[in-house]
């Protein structure tokens, strides 16, 4: 993808997942068409699968009060987007790794007898010329039918996943989701929503297919000021600057390159709010920065999810990464072996965002698309209690 590409807000229909598996004779778990059949009792489990540019991840959960309880989970780095920037196609090796991971997911779905599920693929499959062929291959070899969701839906689900972290005093909210192939930003005005109703308003948020300057889509009194999907994530941004030898120069170029893509985002043209403004960041980049800030040598979700940081604290961690250099980051236990190669491109995106919109409250969300998928399904079925 060329460096001058502009953010897109495509309109796209969502296909319906319908996983099945032969040669078993019992009726297999299915997608949306039969999801309504099992809505009560202890067996009413839900599943959400996110096939991204780097990872394949799944959660199996049951409703519990206003949230949910995770029963099983799966995560594997499949690097599906490897080579996509250069060829425009998914490679044979990445596809084979992904199918192997999805076979494990299928076994877990069968073992738990999950009836309610949503299985989605995002940026790598949106961009690849051979993605439809790959989706058919997945269904043929695993029985799982994935839907390639548009950026609009991915952004909406990221917002929904963060609803429990919205502070009652927040009037202006920016949700950022830094993925492998794209970054979604959603700016929401909650100033006309009663403080006790703000979290609940987020669960029902809707995004218009095109967010034009001066036009707001609404649900009740929550206003989506604008949203955007920037086609730069930790993998795609890194690949654009592999020819730059200097670590510091490469980082600076990545950060400014990302900011250039924000020109069409309406809030970019207005001053940052000084009060009652909250950023919620959901991604491996944000949670890694938080773990580094806390000095965690072993990652602990309970300490990271919901942590708040200031823009200055974020910048301090990123400057520490630059001081460490590539070798130091590779051996730093706070970053981890799977993340060290991607952390600086993600940090470049995060620094650009906190430079444009400095805040005293950036909430760290160890949650994302999978959690959004689960909340959306459970909220639709009415099995969640009010927050």
From TrEMBL:
Residue ranges occupied by any Ppx/GppA phosphatase N-terminal domain in the UniProt entry: 60-378
Entries under Pfam families matching the protein: Ppx-GppA (PF02541)
Gene3D superfamilies: 3.30.420.40, Exopolyphosphatase. Domain 2
InterPro entries documented for this protein: ATPase_NBD, GppA/Ppx_hydrolase, Ppx_GppA_N
Spans annotated as Disordered: 1-41
One function term, GO molecular function aspect: pyrophosphatase activity
Biased composition (Polar residues): 31-40
SUPFAM superfamilies: Actin-like ATPase domain
Protein name: Exopolyphosphatase
